[in-house]
What we know:
Number of strands: 14
Shape: globular
Strand order of the largest sheet: 9-10-11-8-7-6-5-4-3-12-13-14
Bound molecules: S-adenosylmethionine, iron/sulfur cluster
CATH superfamily: Aldolase class I
Distance between the termini: 31 Å
Radius of gyration: 20 Å
Structural class: alpha/beta
Amino acid sequence: MEDGREQDLRSAGGDAFVTDAFDRPMQDLRISLLDRCNFRCPYCMPESEYTEDYQFLSKTARLSHDEIFRVASIAVGLGVTKLRITGGEPLLDKKVASLVGRLAELDGVDDLALTTNGVLLAPIAEALAKAGLQRVTISLDSLNEEVFRSMSGNRGDLDKVFTGIAAAEQAGLSPIKINVVVQRGVNDHTVLDVLDRFRGTGHIVRLIEFMDVGNRNDWTMEQVVPSKETLKMIQTRWPVRAVGKNYPGEVARRYEYLDGKGEVGFISSVTEPFCGSCSRARLSADGTLYTCLFATNGTDLRTALRDGSDDDAIANILTRVWLKRKDRYSELRKPGPVEKPLVNKVEMYRMGG
Ligand code: SAM
Ligand code: SF4
Ligand code: SF4
């Protein structure tokens, strides 16, 4: 390879795996199934920008399931062990269960998960589990009807999300993780209610700092509630203690309740970045490979997928991209009042959250 890092295509138990410029393995692939969504969360796809006539990707511009499967199987051959289907809203794809079934057959995948806003989950949870999905993450920013509605861009239906959670439980898609984006002045006053609701259920709430992804969510540092502050608030109600990572590369810092009622996770990308262990590649719905959530550009795979290139050629593209990877946006960002966010970042719903 041209940059002289051939030695970083290593071998583990007979399988090759690739590490980047900071020795981080390519361990996870997040697959954005489609860029459309039935919500308009203001922190992700504000409805003022994503209006009725917004031009999302056409069917032909999007990767087919065959193409997604091909990229995933090549990535698994390069050491990826964790696959996550996301979007946009992945459950808008009516055939998602059949894709799950194919991905579940891949040798070497030890974790197959899906992230959803939960509204469409109930009718398909069982089929997803039968197809081989191991677990789901469901986004749920508040239990307060008004706050929830507004954080979904007036699209969400709280009852449907709860029916979705119950169906996921029933289908055994656990441990179920509940993602809450915490935004100051928006839902920070309702965070304890969410924790209270899920304590003792086995579901793991993860509190995510509002991130400066993309360019359209009017992010400011003032709206970020640092995890340390949220943790203090939790401690005043339920004592917790820190526990270790479940696996290398896990992004959430875990705390367990001292009364044995489960755990809560913090994803503190803004105030306590974790780039040092970031092992995630992202495949957007149009077949672009991104190596950072805050990327301004990526690498086109769709052309190679459609021009007759063989698997080795595509594996070569993936390997070269990963070997050169130096991303550590969050570590370099240094939150502060005078910071100037990057422009032209790719939107999160496009590259897969
Ligand atoms: N539509 C699905 C959902 O909402 O779960 C999957 C895609 S969504 C982009 C994936 C995750 O990204 C969600 O949990 C969402 O809350 C989170 N997210 C989106 N924008 C964010 C932001 N600006 N800061 C922090 N998390 C964000
Ligand atoms: Fe849709 Fe998920 Fe983005 Fe909300 S966070 S707009 S549900 S993709
Ligand atoms: Fe990974 Fe980029 Fe986030 Fe750092 S900023 S943790 S490199 S996605």
